[in-house]
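Priority: medium. Attachment 1 of 2:
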């Protein structure tokens, strides 16, 4: 059976959050409505058809893993987390099993308002397009996250370096190879980088639903 797995990138150093006075070892365990941000992202992924769900940890590993320890997921550690996002993406893609996993949905651990229905819509749209190499959400003309990467892009994605995600790879795809899914949720373009973002996440909760 064809599957799409999920990779949650949760290895970053939260430099801007900590520099801005954010409390705790990492923004990913900061509470939003009483729940760690990273747990919100993981629970959203687990509520979808994505399988398996792999969480890539790195900086503040014990704190991040502790926030999600009771959930049904797989962990992958990135010892090179300080080198940037690309190394975590590579670790996550390498953890995707067997050839029946045709793609990987890549989520960022600091985007707390991603909804399960959006994840499933991206997966369905990707699987429905035979020639698709990726699927992205589109909100008000702006591409957001998460994204689905076809297994056909895995090798190229693992060659990325530094703090580069898959944006350049996706930008090089043709209209035939890229599926864009209209999204009304603000969550696809909202992440938490600073303490002010965390406060905004709470204020804008209703708009994210």
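Attachment 2 of 2:
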């Amino acid at each position: 059976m064809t599957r799409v797995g999920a990779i949650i990138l949760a290895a970053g150093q939260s430099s801007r959050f900590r520099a801005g006075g954010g409390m705790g070892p990492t923004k990913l365990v900061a509470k939003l409505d009483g729940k760690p941000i990273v747990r919100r992202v993981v629970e959203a992924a687990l509520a979808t058809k994505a399988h398996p769900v792999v969480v890539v940890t790195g900086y503040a590993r014990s704190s991040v893993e502790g926030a999600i320890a009771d959930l049904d997921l797989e962990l992958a550690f990135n010892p090179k987390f300080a080198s940037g996002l690309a190394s975590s993406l590579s670790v996550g893609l390498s953890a995707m099993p067997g050839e029946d996993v045709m793609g990987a949905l890549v989520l960022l651990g600091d985007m707390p308002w991603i909804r399960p229905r959006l994840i499933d819509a991206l997966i369905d749209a990707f699987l429905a397009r035979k020639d698709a190499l990726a699927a992205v959400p589109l909100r008000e003309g702006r591409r957001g996250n998460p994204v689905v990467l076809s297994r056909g892009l895995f090798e190229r994605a693992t060659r990325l370096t530094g703090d580069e995600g898959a944006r350049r790879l996706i930008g090089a795809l043709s209209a035939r190879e890229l599926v864009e899914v209209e999204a009304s949720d603000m969550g696809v373009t909202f992440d938490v980088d600073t303490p002010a973002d965390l406060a905004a996440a709470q204020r804008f909760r209703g708009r994210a639903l």
